[in-house]
Specification:
There is one protein chain. The protein is α/β, with parallel strands linked by helices. It contains ten helices and twelve strands. α6 runs antiparallel to α7, α7 packs parallel to α10 and α9 packs antiparallel against α10. The radius of gyration is 25 Å and the shape is elongated.
């Protein structure tokens, strides 16, 4: 018998009664029906349900979004929104509260059950992750600060997955429920959001796996002779094709041909992450440059942009995972790229530093020695 308790927060009595009847038919327990955000917070504290079904528009001084913020932060309970014809500003506020799902009115029993089960499963997964992190901290008290930092990294990684997953879920439900009524442009907008969110998930997963390999020692330094000039040209041409006319991408070098004993895979990660950051934090139409300087005993890469720059107070932790400057808060990103770059530089026993001017761009300078390695 299903013993999951679901609190219903809905100010339309007929809708609330219909929801209770449907949920009880599905085997859930409905301990209470409430009609306001204030009462929802009170009942969530006293009843401690497993999930809250929350209408966005409610009677009372606070709406469902404000109530959701309070419930999630104070009681760590998953909230699934009930929505109907919400305006764009309201939907943006709803997304910012990071709900565990959306159900569009009038609701479909199958979608209702699926959304609830996904939300419950996600919540249980997050709880297990947090429990595992806490256990790891308790078992490593002698290295508490390092353990805490690592635990925070794992938690932040799990947290970063939620936003694109929520976007995919919401757009999918909107297409499923209202697809036949939508214009082609609105359908395409939802499809574009799904594609963009999927790309974000793929990129995030690749970066986490790459960083995990680096930190576990799976990144093996494997240098071999390579034409570094041709290699850089191929990377720049690839970026030009993908960016089209959005940016002016330049490659400059002091030679036309230079063979160096470097790890090709690590150099690929290094340059692509630096170029990716340059694009991400620069305005469209600006210039992004890769400068290669080859000398007898070293090669030097410089990736320059005309972007927002990095404030001095954030530069000390620049190469730590998940660290991002405050002026980048509105720009999507995870703070993993530079951590990967630093691992690649360290394996080459090279150096990296930042030449930076706020609002005028950044210039990352990487210098790698050219010596035989045992």
């Amino acid at each position: 018998m299903n013993s999951v308790k679901i609190l219903i927060v809905e100010d339309e009595q007929l809708v609330a009664d219909d929801l209770r009847e449907t949920l009880e038919h599905l085997g859930y327990i409905v301990p209470a029906l409430v009609a306001s955000g204030e009462e929802a917070i009170t009942k969530a504290e006293t009843l401690r349900p497993d999930l809250v079904l929350m209408d966005i528009r409610l009677e009372g001084k606070i709406d469902g979004i404000e109530a959701s913020f309070a419930i999630q932060s104070r009681f760590n309970l998953p909230v699934v929104y009930l929505t109907a014809n919400a305006d764009r500003a309201t939907l943006e506020r709803a997304k910012a509260s990071k709900p565990f799902g959306y159900i569009v009115k009038p609701f479909d029993e199958r979608i209702l059950a699926t959304t609830i089960e996904i939300a419950l499963a996600r919540h249980q997964t997050e709880l297990k992750v947090k429990e595992a992190l806490m256990a790891a901290q308790n078992n490593q008290q002698l290295t508490e600060s390092k353990s805490h930092a690592k635990s925070q990294q794992f938690y932040m990684a799990a947290h970063e997955f939620r936003n694109p997953l929520t976007t995919i879920r919401l757009s999918s439900e909107m297409l499923k429920t209202y697809g036949e009524q939508m214009s082609e442009q609105r359908k395409q907008n939802h499809l574009n959001r799904i594609v963009s969110a999927t790309d974000s998930l793929t990129n995030l997963l690749e970066n986490i796996l790459t960083l995990g390999k680096a930190e576990s020692g799976s990144f093996v330094f494997n240098p071999k002779l390579m034409n570094i000039v041709s290699f850089c040209e191929e990377i720049i041409n690839s970026w030009r094709l993908s960016l089209k006319e959005q940016y002016e991408v330049k490659f400059l070098t002091n030679t036309t041909n230079f063979t160096a004993n470097l790890d090709e895979q690590l150099i690929w990660h290094l340059l692509n992450n630096l170029l990716s950051n340059a694009v991400k934090y620069s305005p469209k139409g600006s210039k992004i440059s890769l400068l290669l300087t080859c000398e007898e005993s070293s090669v030097c890469f410089q990736v320059k942009d005309q972007g927002i720059g990095i404030p001095p107070e954030f530069q000390a932790k620049l190469f730590e995972p998940f660290q991002r400057a405050n002026n980048a808060a509105t720009i999507p990103g995870t703070g993993l790229g530079l951590a990967i770059v630093k691992r690649c530089v360290d394996l080459h026993k090279g150096t990296i530093y930042l030449d930076n001017t706020i609002s005028q761009g950044t210039n990352f300078v990487v210098k790698l020695p050219l010596v035989n390695r045992d």
